[in-house]
Specification:
paralog of FGE (formylglycine-generating enzyme); globular; 15 strands; 22% strand; 302 residues; alpha+beta; 4 helices
Length: 302
Amino acid sequence: MRSSILLIFIGISLFSCKTITLDDEQALANIPEDIELIKIPAGAYSSGERGVIKYVEYDYMMMKYPVTNLQYLEFLKAADSLKLIVIDSLGVYGEYKGDQFWPPGYYPYIKFNSTYSRIGYYYPDVYFIKWRYVENRKEFYSNHPVTQVTWFGANAFAKFYGMRLPTAAEWEKAARANSGNQYPWGDTLLLNNANYKDSGDVYDNDTTPVGFYNGDSDLFDSYSPYGCYDMAGNVWEWTSSWWRDSSGKVIKGGSWNSSPNNSDSGSLLIYELMAWYEPAVGYLPENTSREIGFRCIKDASY
């Protein structure tokens, strides 16, 4: 009964206070200055485990890093000021126009009530970012990738700034180009390449600040051929692609909780971090996870 009352309240509040939606085909704000976009040129890329050559026939721009907690918090403030979202102690809700699987309606964007949520909220309008002790000092999660955000919440962020979520193909091209590499940087995984389970950094078994793993080595770098970071490990990333024509979405890239697998050669091997890998299930757009974040792309302008 309480949940029904809450849904009615959300619907009434949204209908009574807004005239536009976050899903309108128009940017409601300029892309923030702290979001850096990398050009991904049209052309060939290696697809799948066997590296089959496929093509993306257009240029596009991809975020260098995943969206951070601070960037998402600023989006929430801006959307709230325009009366585009409804907020309560549990999280944020907003309108979605619908698609072939999900009807028009109001869906959750991000959860506040999870232990693993890094963004908090005090009624009526106080947002804050949580913190933890790192090497005996207090450090906020501001520059860590945002998690506990649904696909609907990721899509709303992208639309607000005139961007969109990448398709699985666009994501994979940005991650490996036509190199044929397993990982964005090559075929070998070292401790200083990515954030995965028990990788041994000071944030171990948690997210790291975006770009923290920069491949500080004479032999290995941790960015993609085009210069995008964190495309392996740290957080999985939502894409716009449906998983095998189902109501779930494809996620890419692995996370801080991805575990090493045994290999015949004894070398470190994590399939989830490989650029071609996709989980054998689609993730429902209304679900959240402490392991899933996102980054956006923008169609190239000439």
